[in-house]
């Protein structure tokens, strides 16, 4: 009797399932400690718009997750329980002060869709450079769970966090606060709730804020590390470009310092983000 040997098509389909489309790129669908099968990236069909509903220009993945060397590419992760007793006096005071002003709990999108959208709109109007698309939540939005942060005494929604739970890991998708209430410690209250509510619940053993942000400068990873004991886990960045685009990146790469001076232009900003990824990848390419 012949053994059931997977066909070439089955192998290619399995390889493709390890990837997802996001913002003109292909990203690994696996946890960062697992390296995806990259064989499908050599196939023309893998880069077809019909495969993803959008046009991917490059694929990004990592290897050597948890390596000791600094690689300029990291994941911001918390893998232990949080206790106020473990942090310094100043951070403990700040969090307790935030908890006096804010109350956090799991919420339903359909109940708070209007309030969530109001917070998103306020955030969007405060951006100096409106590069990100404004996000809206409908009553039937299927994401989540959501954590709502309410002002004590008024029950006004003044912030929220959306997370995704997969393989016993909580992935932070987005955190937003009403700009008018930032002094109330919304992000402190939000992250305190997430760290104390999710860790240990139903086998959850990790909270991840994802990989280093390239497109938007932020110090949120530093905030999480200093206040809540998150850690930056190094990994080696890899890139593969759609046919034709690798040559374009190679051509533009020597001009990256000049292009940074034009970063206020939308298209140039996007190009600069790719060139920075290329620079990080080159700096730490395995030799």
Layout of helices and strands, plus pairs?
Blueprint: H1 8-16, E1 19-22, E2 25-28, H2 49-52, E3 58-63, E4 74-78, H3 89-101, E5 102-107, H4 109-126, E6 146-151, E7 156-166, E8 169-177, H5 186-198, E9 206-211, H6 220-228, E10 231-234, E11 236-241, H7 245-252, H8 256-260, H9 266-283
Parallel strand pairs: 2-3, 8-9
Antiparallel strand pairs: 1-2, 3-11, 4-9, 4-10, 5-6, 6-7, 7-8
Helix pairs in contact: 3-5
Number of strands: 11
What CATH calls the topology of the largest domain is Aminopeptidase
- Compute the average pLDDT: 89
The assigned structural class equals alpha+beta
Name the helicity range: 25-40%
CATH superfamily of the largest domain: Gcn5-related N-acetyltransferase (GNAT)
In terms of DSSP E residues, the strand content is 15-25%
Spatial shape = globular
CATH architecture of the largest domain, please? 3-Layer(aba) Sandwich
What's the gist of this structure?
With 287 residues, this protein is an alpha+beta fold. The chain has helices at 8-16, 49-52, 89-101, 109-126, 186-198, 220-228, 245-252, 256-260, 266-283; strands spanning 19-22, 25-28, 58-63, 74-78, 102-107, 146-151, 156-166, 169-177, 206-211, 231-234, 236-241. The longest helix is centred in the middle third of the chain and has 18 residues, at 109-126.
Provide structural commentary:
The chain is of the alpha+beta class and 287 residues long. The chain is 34% helix and 23% strand. Helix 3 packs across helix 5. The strands form 2 sheets. A 7-stranded mixed β-sheet has the order 5-6-7-8-9-4-10, sandwiched between helices. A hairpin with a 2-residue loop joins strand 1 and strand 2 (25-28). The protein is built from 9 helices and 11 strands.
């Amino acid at each position: 009797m012949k053994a059931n040997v997977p066909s070439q098509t089955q192998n290619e389909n399995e390889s493709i399932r390890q990837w997802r489309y996001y913002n003109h790129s292909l990203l690994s669908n696996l946890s960062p400690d697992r390296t995806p099968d990259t064989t499908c990236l050599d196939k023309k069909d893998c880069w077809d718009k019909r495969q993803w509903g959008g046009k991917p220009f490059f694929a990004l993945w990592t290897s050597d997750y948890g390596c000791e060397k600094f690689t300029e590419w990291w994941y911001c992760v918390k893998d232990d329980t949080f206790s106020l007793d473990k942090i310094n006096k100043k951070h403990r005071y700040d969090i307790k002060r935030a908890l006096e002003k804010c109350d956090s709990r799991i919420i339903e999108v359909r109940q708070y869709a209007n309030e969530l959208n109001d917070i998103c709109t306020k955030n969007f109007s405060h951006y100096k450079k409106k590069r990100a698309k404004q996000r809206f939540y409908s009553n039937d939005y299927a994401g989540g769970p959501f954590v709502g942060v309410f002002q004590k005494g008024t029950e006004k929604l003044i912030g929220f966090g959306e997370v995704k739970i997969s393989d016993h890991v909580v992935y932070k998708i987005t955190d937003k606060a009403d700009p008018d209430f930032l002094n109330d410690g919304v992000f402190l209250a939000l992250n305190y709730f997430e760290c104390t509510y999710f860790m240990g619940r139903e086998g959850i053993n990790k909270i991840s804020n994802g990989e280093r942000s390239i497109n938007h400068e932020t110090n949120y990873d530093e905030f999480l590390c200093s206040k809540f004991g998150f850690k930056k886990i190094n990994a080696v960045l890899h890139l593969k470009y759609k046919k034709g685009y690798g040559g374009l990146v190679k051509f533009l790469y020597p001009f990256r310092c000049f292009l940074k001076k034009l970063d206020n232009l939308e298209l140039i900003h996007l190009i600069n983000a790719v060139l920075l990824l290329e620079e990080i990848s080159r700096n730490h390419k395995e030799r």
